[in-house]
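Whiteboard transcription, Tuesday session. T.W. wrote the structure tokens on the left side:
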């Protein structure tokens, strides 16, 4: 039985204004900066909401979670650091103003914006199955990666789980939030194999958890 639905995304930033400005353009969302230094991007669909969170830690390693985008051309990304050569893959990989990797797929007949969320994995079959069990959706195991489509509430084609040799060593700078389905609890997620990293406080009404591979996600009560 599925326990949660997709809620939104969150990106850590040292310079919220720079990251918010870039990603508002890249994702075609409107932006707002708050007095506490954090920011948010919003679209017509609530699932498009993307929080930009001020953090003191700088990026030190390749992100284990990144976004894939669709664009009519690579022109909007001129001036950014390009990490893959033209024509090397079906996509082109860039780094945003703080070095966060993202991939661009050029399609001139599709609306530009977010395409997929991509998650590095030690065991792509196991972790994708875990998320399929708690989220729902349609899971497909390919030879070299797994993709979870039709995730309730998620404004993406899929979450792609891609095998990598290196283990997770630091907190992900991009994570997703989920909402508990009616009747489901944090304890149910723990029984399934998630870990509690931080419980709600007077300032934070969510529970920070990690999936079986250590990927952080925040859990909100229904309603």
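and on the right, the sequence the group agreed on:
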């Amino acid at each position: 039985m599925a326990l949660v639905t997709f809620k939104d995304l969150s990106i850590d930033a040292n310079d919220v204004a720079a990251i918010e400005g870039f990603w508002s353009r890249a994702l075609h969302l409107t932006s707002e900066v708050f007095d506490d230094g954090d920011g948010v991007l919003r679209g017509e669909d609530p699932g498009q909401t993307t929080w930009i969170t001020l953090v003191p830690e700088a990026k030190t390693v390749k992100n284990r979670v990144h976004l894939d985008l669709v664009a009519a051309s690579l022109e909007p990304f001129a001036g950014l650091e390009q990490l893959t050569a033209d024509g090397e893959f079906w996509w082109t990989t860039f780094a945003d103003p703080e070095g966060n990797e993202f991939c661009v797929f050029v399609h001139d007949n599709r609306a530009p914006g977010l395409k997929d969320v991509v998650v590095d994995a030690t065991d792509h079959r196991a972790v994708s199955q875990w998320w399929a069990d708690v989220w729902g959706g349609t899971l497909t195991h390919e030879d070299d990666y797994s993709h979870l489509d039709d995730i309730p509430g998620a404004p993406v084609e899929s979450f792609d789980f891609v095998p990598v040799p290196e283990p997770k060593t630091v907190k992900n700078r991009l994570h997703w939030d989920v909402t508990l389905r009616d009747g489901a609890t944090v304890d149910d997620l723990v029984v399934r194999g998630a870990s509690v990293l931080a419980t709600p406080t007077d300032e934070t009404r969510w529970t920070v958890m990690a999936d079986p591979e250590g990927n952080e996600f925040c859990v909100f009560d229904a309603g």
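Someone added at the bottom: The CA atoms of residues 89 and 208 lie 35 Å apart.
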